[in-house]
Specification:
185 residues; alpha+beta; SH3 type barrels; 2 domains; disordered N terminus
Length: 185
């Protein structure tokens, strides 16, 4: 299944471009977290957010790694002329509020809290309870205590993980205490 989320109508060329970029980035040892194409004609902007595979907060991709991915993609895009002679390529980390874009992201982040914009409903803060194995449907349990509901992935316009600041602080504290223990031992 190709990526369908966040872009109202994705033409076949963009679907193929997305699949090719995801594969090339995977071949480099990273994953595409989000991809957006803006503009047309003589000035296309391609924004790609990448990360280490299965990265946890605070252990993500570095600026140097983003630059290496950018150089590899730029070389291929220049050679293939897929975006024309003039385009802007932006490669960056997904940031702390990581997008949840493709089905495998929803599956990976089961149990995590997300902020989701749903077509016809608006924004919802919920926990990913499940991903239906037989359909492109995610089960979301609103954090305000409402009942869990099935949401077809094609209705999701945008979704990001909600930052768990307490977990990040605990992780930082553990790393600091581990470092102190190693230095004193």
């Amino acid at each position: 299944m190709g990526p369908r989320f966040f872009l109202p109508v994705m033409d076949q060329a963009l679907t193929e471009l997305t699949a090719e970029i995801r594969q090339r980035v995977a071949d480099l040892g990273y994953e595409v977290v989000d991809l957006r194409r803006q503009g047309a004609g003589s000035r296309v902007r391609l924004q790609i957010r990448v990360d280490r595979v299965n990265a946890e907060p605070g252990q993500g991709i570095t600026v140097d790694e983003c630059a290496a991915v950018s150089r590899a993609l730029q070389s291929w895009l220049d050679e293939a002329q897929l975006l024309g002679p003039r385009y802007v390529l932006e490669v960056s980390s997904p940031g702390i509020e990581r997008p949840v874009r493709w089905r495998e992201h929803w599956e990976r982040y089961r149990g995590r809290e997300v902020s989701v914009r749903i077509e016809g409903r608006g924004r919802l803060r919920a926990v990913i309870q499940d991903v239906r194995p037989d359909a492109d449907v995610v089960v979301l349990r609103p954090t305000d205590g409402g009942d869990a509901e099935d949401v077809p992935l094609e209705r999701v316009r945008e979704a990001t993980l909600v930052v768990d600041w307490e977990a990040l602080e605990r992780s930082a504290t553990e790393r600091t205490s581990t470092k102190s223990t190693k230095e004193s031992g």
